[in-house]
Specification:
By secondary structure, the chain is α+β, with helices and mostly antiparallel strands. 34% of the residues lie in helices and 29% in strands. It starts with a strand and ends in a 13-residue tail after the last helix.
Length: 315
């Protein structure tokens, strides 16, 4: 990074994800210290970006704008493609040859050495992105009939038909610009992941997302870990993605999930009549939602610490 009294240049390489976004934001904050009038973010060597990485990029430009600092971004083709999928191109000041010149699909996976780092934690569980050698867990969960009947996860459907190490599934699980998949794991030493929570359909401009939670065994469900993981994921989404609304859909016969949503402060918003065929009959799909003020009430009860990407002085 080169920095002088007028213009700051920050070159960032590798991956821009939920595990690296805090470091990226710290670097931006450091670049903006002092008498700076302009900021250039060079992302031409970024190989992958997920929804949290894009949120960090969007927040960085807004942070600079609030301080009256002109900001420009030099994206790689991968970053440009991610911004296109996330509908963020109109929100960011893009420049350079990476700004749309090449939309070739990039499927080579870049391993993130910090993938095991928890992004959120409570007293009993942590949420973290999966490591490469843990993608096989999704194949195991994808072939559990009960989990498919109760959750109907599109991510698990994709895994069941492509396998966990197909490039397209790897991109969905690790580097999706409109979704974030986090493993649920007990804080007890040596405990394996028990399931996952997935924020998907993330729209950073309109500030909404969808959530699904899947546990791989009934024992974890009885312990209430799914409820706790969902609450933790909502708090994390508020802090990092700045969401205002989160929506969840549940099959009408899935009473445990309906009860869990109500316990997490979701309200029933609508019914998709007879939208699911199961066990020889048609069932409704129930639509639940929760808004930011309601999430804050729930969060105050849980006492989760701040999990945002920026230090307090940047606000």
């Amino acid at each position: 990074m080169a920095n002088d009294t007028e213009f700051a240049r920050l070159k960032y390489e590798g991956v821009l994800t939920c595990t690296t976004a805090p470091g990226f934001c710290q670097a931006v904050q450091a670049a903006l210290r002092g008498d700076v009038t302009g900021l250039q973010l060079n992302l031409e060597e970024v190989k992958h970006a997920d929804a949290v990485g894009l949120a960090a990029l969007l927040q960085a430009t807004r942070h600079a704008r609030r301080r009256g600092i002109a900001c420009t971004i030099l994206p790689s083709a991968v970053v440009y493609r991610a911004l296109l999928r996330a509908e963020l191109l109109d929100e960011l000041p893009l420049e350079g040859p990476g700004g749309g010149s090449d939309l070739t699909e990039i499927t080579d996976a870049v391993l993130d050495d910090s993938a095991l780092t928890p992004v959120a934690a409570s007293g009993r569980i942590v949420l973290r992105p999966p490591a490469w050698d843990e993608l096989g867990l999704f194949a195991q969960w994808a072939n559990e009939p009960l989990l498919d009947q109760m959750v109907g996860s599109p991510l698990l459907y994709h895994c069941r038909h492509t396998g966990p190490y197909h490039p397209e599934f790897v991109a969905r699980a690790l580097y999706d610009p409109t979704a974030l998949t986090l493993l649920i794991q007990s804080t007890e030493s040596g405990s394996p992941p028990i399931g996952f929570v997935r924020l998907h359909g993330i729209h950073l401009v309109e500030r909404f997302a969808f959530v699904e939670t899947a546990l791989g065994d009934a024992g974890s469900l009885r312990k209430g870990w799914g409820v706790e993981a969902s609450r933790l994921a909502l708090a994390y989404a508020m802090d990092t993605l700045e969401v205002h609304r989160v929506e969840a859909k549940v099959y009408a016969y899935n009473v445990p999930s309906i009860n869990a949503l109500r316990r997490n402060g979701f309200d029933l918003e609508g019914v998709l009549r007879e939208a699911r065929r199961y066990d020889g009959r048609r069932w409704d799909v129930l639509v639940f939602s929760i808004l930011e003020p309601e999430m804050r009430v729930q969060r105050a009860r849980d006492g989760f610490p701040p999990m945002g990407l920026w230090s307090s002085d940047s606000r």
